[in-house]
Write the structure tokens for this entry.
Amino acid sequence: MLDKGTCLRFYKRRDIQEVLIEHAKNKEIGMRFGEIFGKRPDILMYPQDVLELARRGLTSFHASEELWSNPLAISNSTSKKELEELRCGWDLVLDIDCAFIEYSKICADLIVKFLEYCEVRDFSVKFSGNKGFHIGIPFEAFPKQVGEAEMKDLFPEAPRKMAWYVKENIKEELRKRILALEKRNFSAIKEKVNLPEEEIIRYETTVLGDNIPKLNVGAFLEIDTVLLASRHLYRMPYSLHEKSGLVSLPLDPHKIMEFTKEMARPEAVLTPMFMFLERNVKMESARRLLLQALDFKVEKEREDEGKIPKKFEELEISSPIKEEFFPPCMKKMLGGMEDGKKRSVFCLMNYLGKIGWNKSEINELLKKWNKEKNREPLREVYIKGQLYNFKPGDKLPPNCDNEAYYKTLGVACNAEWCKRLKNPVNYTLSKWRRYLHEKEEGKFEEK
């Protein structure tokens, strides 16, 4: 765990201050003070600000994947169109997360090899500070346009498609290398990732009728972009990590397998050796990766067409999904909040909008919740203001692992499935799909 002395000793270093300031250019910056995030939006401009913030209790810095012409012009009420006008670019940041760091290292090493195969030259790697790695490609390495579309406007579709393309192309080799590391001992994997056997093993039937066990890597190792929606943040390079006390350390991409956590101790980082998301690129080296990812997605969709029954291909929500299908975090919020009521409004309105509730229904529920469940209600004008430009279904609520929300609000589910579902909406849709399926099979009777 971090203490103030460690933060002050580390952040007072001029070399650390300078790399933080360099990375913060055109980015929205989130600042964390122990368990609490500072106000957003914010920026970081001057080296002396880093030390001053540490004196005030700052523990870590976080940056947006998106690049903004004016980060301070952003607010929670900024419309989607206004955000698009402010966005001047975005970086691809792949987030590798696994409870066992040796598996994360294998995954990061494979992604580096695959990017090189795709002729990407301008990528960088950093240890996340705890259990995973971030792999980044700067916006400058992509073409300025794809067809008639400007690259800055292909957000978030392009990063998501590239993340999916990378995952699909390394998944078989990832499975093989993890099994080779454990000498095909499934029990060893189960023990390290702390998941039941039925979740990490699936069986495939051969033409001879034999059931062959296959490792389901996706159950315990995630590769994704850091975003599910606009304005999501990642830990900045050379920022400290609250839980581990380690540095989010940029690495030599070709020596990932040699990395140990000891290298990321604050006192072991003698000087910044590598940059993360270096802007000085000579060519559009990520062009091929982008175009192949866009084409691959289309081909995969055509390939899969007709294999999934139409009624299960896309879940149609014709009426608001009821509270019995809500995740525990949302139920706890709706029970009333002592602190964090404004953040709860943000979570609830975006969550409800994604599960079929219209604006009028959301307004009615929030007003009733505020009046009847909160001991000290918010002013009604605040809720009215939040809903004024709100469009149901336009944004997801914050992800389950976003510590600025559920954990610090005291409503986190603390359940293993949160790690896999990623977002409260996924919990509800999964439970709703199961209900519809069982209802169709006659297991549920209409009430």
Notes: The CA atoms of residues 51 and 381 lie 38 Å apart.
